Fold each of these.
Amino acid sequence: GSWGSTLSLIYAQAHPGRVMGMVLRGIFLCRKQDIQWFYQDGASHVFPDYWKDFLSQIPLAEQDNLLPAYYQRLTGNNEIVRMAAAKAWCVWEGRCASFHPNPDLVEHLGSPHTALAMARIEAHYFINDAFLDDNEILDQVDRLRGIPAVIVHGRYDMVCPVDQAFELYEAWGEVRLEVIRDAGHASSEAGTLSALIEATDGMAKTLMDVS
């Protein structure tokens, strides 16, 4: 799910003959607009209070371009600045990830070792546009033809909005899309978890029947 869905789709497009089926969650097409939605102008309008905390690590003069500002701090030599930036980055994501508040998830993501690793890896990929051409996944969707797939996506996903899943569904055509009405981004939410179990069980049966 999420970044994992990006990697899965890119792998399947590169090696379609090695992929028997896919169960995807929280589609992230990783276009510039998708990255900007969460780290510059989008989710900030839904969670202005949490966004204020995210902005607090960056001087006003740099807030028009947050990714490089954060990346500079996450990779700098000042350990205190580095850790503060990492925690703010991951707490922002954790707060936005669930339909219902999930303080345990926020605490986990904000823990020092988790936060530093996660924030630095994410920022490195995002500042480099994930080393993908913009719209690469949709532009190469024909390479996914014939692969059975199910997409599970929360209706109120504020990290990777559901329009990304719908665009992929429309372009791919052969995929089944399950939109969970009372879920956000996190895989641990009850409706999403239930749909994922059903999808994986169904995919296992499909692949067994084929083999």
Note: The mean pLDDT is 97.
Amino acid sequence: MPDLPRGMKPRQVHVIDAIWHLNESNGQDVGTARVGDVSAFLGVTTPSVTKLVNEMSTLGLVTKHPGREDRRAVTLTLTERGLDIRRRYVQEYHEHLGRLLGGLTEDQCRTTAATIAETLRLMQEDER
């Protein structure tokens, strides 16, 4: 995967992908994704997403649209640059992984998935 453009953080790619998924059903031109939706989608705090979205707006990756009745109720859309970042760093990456891992057998995939799930369970248990 190529390096991120100067000034971009990996977390911002996750926010871009979340906005894309949240806006997918209405088309990318109609912003229905809100900061709270993005934070819930990613399982992170709203203030952290607010900070990232503000940075991303400055970088020309997202557009913030104030609500008609409540101007604080901002919806988000991706700019052409944001859509290009998603294509390069999410879509093409997943396609590459698909080609790379396409040689695994179904048994190998099941074993790997079970190992990852058990590792996650153990790590979550350790946090308690």
Note: Helices lie at 10-23, 35-42, 46-58, 80-101, 106-127.
